[in-house]
Amino acid sequence: MNRLVVRPVSAWRCCSCNTLKAWIPILSWLPRYKLKWLQMDLLAGLTVGLTTVPQALAYAEVAGLPVQYGLYSAFMGGFIYTVLGTSKDVTLGPTAIMSLLCFSVVGGQPHRAVLLSLLCGLIQAVMALLRLGFLLDFISFPVIKGFTCAAAVTIGFGQVKNILGLQGIPHQFYLEVYYTFYKIPEARVGDVVLGLLCLTLLVMLMCMKMRLDSGPVPAYSRLARKLVWAVATMRNALVVVAASLIAFSWEAYGHHVFTITGKTSQGLPPFRPPSTSDTTANGTIVSFGEIVDGFGGGLAVIPLMGLLESIAIAKAFASQNDYRIDANQELLAIGVTNIMGSFVSAYPVTGSFGRTAVNSQTGVCTPAGGIVTSVVVLLSLAFLMPAFYYIPKASLAAVIICAVAPMVDYCVVAKMWRIRKLDLLPFFVTFLLSFWQVQYGIVGGVAVSGVLLLYNMARPQIKVSDHGALVVELNSGLSFPAAEYLSHVIHSHALSASPPRSLVLDCHHVSIIDYTVISELRNVLRQFKLRGVQLVFSRLQPSVLEVLLAAELEGLRHTDSVEAALLQTESENLLDD
C-alpha cells in the first residue's frame, strides 16, 4: 500500500527559505543577533559616522556639487546594505573615485548627478539579476592601478587650489595645473596657513594610527592607547571641527580670512523620484534622451567601476576576517542603494576602502553598524547644516588629499616590471589617458588589455622538440584565433621540411577546442597523408577526444602518451620503408 509522503513539500519550503535568505541576507543573521553584537555595532557605526560626515562633505566638492549632496549620498547605503549586503565590514557611500567620475560625466550639475545615480543603479541591479558579475573580470589589475593612480593625482592636485584659496581655476587637468601655478601670487595667506596646518595634523594622526595598528607600542598604557587610536581614527572630523571653530571666530569679528563653504540647504532631502528632464540657465528644456546621450560612455564606466571598487573591498575584508561574500548579491545591494539614493538626491556611491577599514578595526559584528552610521549622517543633516557654513574649504581639501594620497602606489610599477613588463602597457595607457578624460583612460586600458589577451590566445606557447619524430607541445588551450598559427608551426617544422617529417601533437594542456580548429586540423591531416607522413595526437583530454571523434576526422590517430605516439610513428615509417 502506498503512503502519502510529505517530504517534498517540506523540501520545497526549505528550498524557498534558503532562496529567500540568499536574496535577503539579513534573514540569515538577524534571528541569531546578540546583545554583545549590538554594543560593537553601535561603537563601530558611531566611529564610521564621524568619519563619514567630513569625507562626504569633501567628496561633494570633488563631484562639483554643493556639500549637502555628499551627505544626501551617505545615508541610504547603510540602510539598504544592512538588508541586502553579505559583508559585515563594507560601508557604502560617496568615494573619491566615484565623485571624480561623476564630475567628469555631469560637470557638477546636481539634477543630472541624481538621475545618473538612478540609471547606474538600474544597470547594476540588472547585472546582478542576470548574473553578469563575471564582466568585471575583464578589467585587469594594471588597468585598475593605472586608473586609481591617475585619479589620486587628479583629485589631489584638484584640491591644491582650495589649499591656496584660488578662484577661477578650470577643471580640465592640464589647464588646472597651468592656472594653479600661474595664479600662485594670488594665494590667500589664511587659506594657505590653515590648509598646511590641517594637512600636517592629519598626516601626524594618520602616522600615529598606522603605528598603533602595526603592533604593540610599549610607551602607551592600554587606556592611553585606546584614546590615541580613537583620536587618530576620527581625525577628519576633529580637524574639520577645529578649523570651523577657527573660521567662525575670525568671521565673528568681521575678518574674512578664510574661504568658507557658505550657505547650504538645511534639513533632510525630500523623498521624490529624480527629474527626467533638466532646464538650462537660459530656460531651454533638456529632454531625458538628450541627458542620457550626454552621459555617453560614463553610463557604462561608472556602474562597472562602482561594482569593481566595492567587490574588491568586500573580497579583501572577507578574506581577512574569514567569511565569504556573494559577488552577485553585492551587485544587487549597490544597485538598489543607487536606485533608492536617487530618490533622496544622492549621486552614485560604492564601497569605501577607508571607512570599511575603520569599520573592521573597530570590531563591527554585522552589517547593522551601517544603520548607526546612517543615523549619524541624518542627524547631521537635520541639526548641523547651519554649522557647515563656516567649514573652511582648505580643511576639506586637506581631508581629500590625505584620503587619496595612499592610492598613488608607485611601487606597483617596479613589481610589474619584474613580473611581466608587458603589463606596464595597459597601466600607462590608462594612467595617461585618464588625465585627458577619465572614461577614455578606463576604456583605453581595457582595450589594450583585451588586445594583449587576444594576442595570447592567437599566439599560444608552442614547444617544438625532436625525438626522431617532431613533438609539438601545446601549453594552453586551442580556440579559433590560434588555428592559423598552429597550422603555420606544423607546416614550417614538419610539412615544409625536406623530406617531410612525422609529428606528435601533445595536447595534454588543451581542454577546449572549437569548430575552426577542427576544420584546420582536418586540412592538416590531409596534407600529412598526401606527403606520406604521420600526425599522431597524444594525451588528449576526454572532452577534446570526444569532440575529435564526433568530427570524424579522416586519418585521426591518438595515444595515451608521447612515448606511445613516437613508437607508432617509428613503426609506421619502418613499414613505409
From TrEMBL:
Main localization category: membrane
Membrane topology: Multi-pass membrane protein
Presence of keyword Iron: no
Keywords: Anion exchange, Cell membrane, Ion transport, Lysosome, Membrane, Transmembrane, Transmembrane helix, Transport
The STAS domain, residue ranges: 468-577
Highest taxon listed in the record's lineage: Eukaryota
Catalytic activity: hydrogencarbonate(in) + chloride(out) = hydrogencarbonate(out) + chloride(in); oxalate(in) + chloride(out) = oxalate(out) + chloride(in); sulfate(in) + H(+)(in) = sulfate(out) + H(+)(out)
One GO MF term: antiporter activity
Protease among keywords: no
InterPro entries (alphabetical): S04_transporter_CS, SLC26A/SulP_dom, SLC26A/SulP_fam, STAS_dom
Gene Ontology terms: cellular component: apical plasma membrane; basolateral plasma membrane; lysosomal membrane
Pfam families in alphabetical order: STAS, Sulfate_transp
Membrane-crossing residue ranges in chain numbering: 42-60, 66-84, 91-108, 114-134, 146-169, 189-207, 227-250, 295-318, 330-349, 369-389, 396-417, 437-455
Cell compartments where the protein resides: Apical cell membrane; Basolateral cell membrane; Lysosome membrane
NCBIfam families, per database record: sulP
Family affiliation: Belongs to the SLC26A/SulP transporter (TC 2.A.53) family.
Role summary: Sodium-independent anion exchanger mediating bicarbonate, chloride, sulfate and oxalate transport. Exhibits sodium-independent sulfate anion transporter activity that may cooperate with SLC26A2 to mediate DIDS-sensitive sulfate uptake into high endothelial venules endothelial cells (HEVEC). In the kidney, mediates chloride-bicarbonate exchange, facilitating V-ATPase-mediated acid secretion. May function as a chloride channel, playing an important role in moderating chloride homeostasis and neuronal activity in the cerebellum.
Name this protein carries in UniProt: Sodium-independent sulfate anion transporter
Organism: Solea senegalensis
